[in-house]
Amino acid sequence: MKKLKDLIAMKQEKEKISMVTAYDYPSAKQAEEAGLDTILVGDSLGMTVLGYESTVQVTLDDMIHHAKAVRRGAPNTFVIVDVPFGSVGVSDSYDIQQAVKLYRETEANAIKAEGAHLAPFIKNVTRMGIPVVSHLGLTPQSVGVTGYKLQASTKETAKQLIKDAQEVEKAGAVMIVVEAIPSDLAKTISNSVSIPVIGIGAGKDTDGQVLVYHDLVKYGTDHKPKFVKQFADFSIGVTALNQYHEEVKAQAFPSEEYTYKKQIMNEVDER
Ligand code: KIV
């Protein structure tokens, strides 16, 4: 398993870090078999797996339930688990309890918290020994306020984002995810901090890339953001299901090939 020090070394040696989301045992198993450096149990599971409109409905218990399955599927991969909307930001002691519960029960290697306003939280839980990844730029938990659009696209907001990245690094963040920001800004941020910066919709000059599993294999998704490349088309599952449905109707399935041959009824006394 890659450790934090390995991920930092990869940044220093300019080897890109790969990250994909996973939410269950099979997707995690695939990610590990495929050799991904890191897995993110993203709260995007709200949309991809649970069918919600946004990440806002996802609870701490949802994250724990799914991250435990991911850990079982990928025991040898660095796993990061999202701190979901509204589960911290209450009081220092409550926030620490929530972070400890998430980290301990999931056996993840790090937790991820959205927004630079959580720098004090990052500081507190880092002191407890919990590695925290910060998520800046477009933070999906705040889309009710920001909308899904390019962030930090003015001089002032770009400058602020550079400061935010430096602030979360100072607070103890071990990595930063930057989402939907101009690629030149992402490059500057990556060069201005010593921790790995992983981009999504942030161009090629970050220290690594993350994509949502369901987006990259086109599984159950109707909308394709500009920055998503579909590397496979799992919507072929619909074709398979339809063929199964038709074969059941036509009594073509199960054929002899899929039927146990042993005859028992001549031995059963039906009286
Ligand atoms: O929840 C998630 O999948 C994420 C990625 C978009 C980075 O936070």
TrEMBL record:
Q: Which Gene3D superfamilies match?
A: Phosphoenolpyruvate-binding domains
Q: What is its EC number?
A: 2.1.2.11
Question: Where does the record say this protein resides?
Answer: Cytoplasm
Describe cofactor binding as the record notes it.
Binds 1 Mg(2+) ion per subunit.
Q: Which GO terms describe its molecular function?
A: 3-methyl-2-oxobutanoate hydroxymethyltransferase activity
Q: In which pathway does it act?
A: Cofactor biosynthesis; (R)-pantothenate biosynthesis; (R)-pantoate from 3-methyl-2-oxobutanoate: step 1/2
Pfam families named among the record's database cross-references: Pantoate_transf (PF02548)
Q: Which cofactor does it need?
A: Mg(2+)
Tell me the enzyme class: transferase
Keywords assigned:
Cytoplasm, Magnesium, Metal-binding, Pantothenate biosynthesis, Transferase
Which reactions is this enzyme annotated as catalysing?
A: (6R)-5,10-methylene-5,6,7,8-tetrahydrofolate + 3-methyl-2-oxobutanoate + H2O = 2-dehydropantoate + (6S)-5,6,7,8-tetrahydrofolate
Question: Where, by residue number, does Mg(2+) bind?
Answer: 43, 82, 114
Keyword Cytoplasm annotated? yes
Q: What does this protein do?
A: Catalyzes the reversible reaction in which hydroxymethyl group from 5,10-methylenetetrahydrofolate is transferred onto alpha-ketoisovalerate to form ketopantoate.
Q: What family does the entry list?
A: Belongs to the PanB family.
NCBIfam families found in the cross-reference section: panB (TIGR00222), PRK00311.1 (NF001452)
What is said about its interaction partners and assembly? Homodecamer; pentamer of dimers.
The protein here is known as 3-methyl-2-oxobutanoate hydroxymethyltransferase
Organism listed in the record: Staphylococcus marylandisciuri
Q: Tell me the name of the encoding gene.
A: panB
